Automatic annotation (TrEMBL):
Subcellular location: Membrane
Transmembrane segments: 185-208
Highest taxon in the source lineage: Eukaryota
InterPro entries registered for this protein in UniProt: Cadherin (IPR039808), Cadherin-like_dom (IPR002126), Cadherin-like_sf (IPR015919)
Limits of the Cadherin domain: 1-77
CDD domains the record matches: Cadherin_repeat
Organism: Peucedramus taeniatus (Olive warbler)
Name of the featured protein: CAD87 protein
Any one Gene Ontology cellular component term annotated for this protein: catenin complex
One example GO MF annotation: cadherin binding
């Protein structure tokens, strides 16, 4: 408001819409969530701005707030035989057709294609859409119900999308990729591998140590046998058949 004084000081408020789920800062107009746990989709809020003059003037506008449920288990994949760059340009029209034919609010979580090469964006005639539907209470519609409705309305959906893309369109339900392992699971797997590697290394060390001990044990045993044999030979018969003495020879005493 370009006015000065009280005539230029605005206060904001929510006058209609999901006022239980959201609130607004009356001085700045900042909107924030209060209670949207377990809910997702697009919420429509009617926001009013009023000046503080003697004759208060007001203006209203609708604010659309989208709560993203990209981690939901109720996401359904829809595969279109159209190039991704074309689908991205027609995103709003595609969403409108799906909402009209399914009878629910539909949110396009993601638009992508399988190929990783950027050049393929304009050459691959297959685009995957991750969609999620919400009922009038803004609750997620179970994935199986969405798939069932997509099958029932497949013909009408393809005709509606054909008008959007000005070409025949096939829409098929795809299998969403399995969820990636959680960081905790990945950490547990890595820790398990490290423990297994450590155990294998320790076991190999023990086996090598036992093998080394057996080897040197045998060598010590052979040496002991040789010594014992040497001692036995000291007491063996000489050429004349008499016992050898362990005493030093007389010349050794001198």
């Amino acid at each position: 408001d370009p006015d000065s004084g009280d005539n230029g000081r605005l206060q904001y408020s929510l006058v209609r819409g999901q006022t239980n789920e959201f609130d607004i800062n009356e001085n700045t107009g900042q909107i924030f969530a209060v209670s949207v746990a377990g809910k997702a989709g697009t919420f429509y809020l009617e926001v009013q701005a009023a000046d503080q003059g003697t004759r208060r003037l007001t203006a209203q506008t609708t604010v659309n707030v989208t709560v993203d449920s990209s981690s939901s288990s109720n996401i359904v994949m829809l595969v279109l035989n159209q190039r991704i760059n074309v689908v991205e340009r027609k995103r709003v029209e595609v969403q409108r057709v799906l909402e009209e034919k399914l009878g629910w609010n539909v949110y396009l979580v993601n638009i992508y294609f399988k190929e990783s090469d950027r050049k393929a964006r304009s050459s691959i005639d297959e685009t995957q859409l991750n969609i999620i539907a919400f009922d009038e209470a803004h609750q997620e519609v179970p994935a199986e119900d969405v798939k069932r409705k997509l099958r029932e309305q497949k013909g009408d959906i393809q005709l509606g999308l054909g008008e959007v893309f000005s070409a025949p369109v096939s829409a098929a339900i795809g299998e969403a990729p399995s969820a990636p392992a959680s960081p905790e699971l990945v950490a547990a797997i890595v820790l398990g591998v490290l423990l297994a590697s450590t155990f294998i290394t320790f076991l190999a060390y023990v086996l090598l140590d036992l093998k080394r001990k057996r080897k040197y044990g045998k060598q010590d045993l052979v040496k002991k046998v040789e010594i014992m044999e040497g001692i036995d030979n000291l007491w063996a018969d000489d050429k004349n058949g008499s016992l050898k003495s362990l005493e030093k020879p007389e010349h050794m005493h001198n």
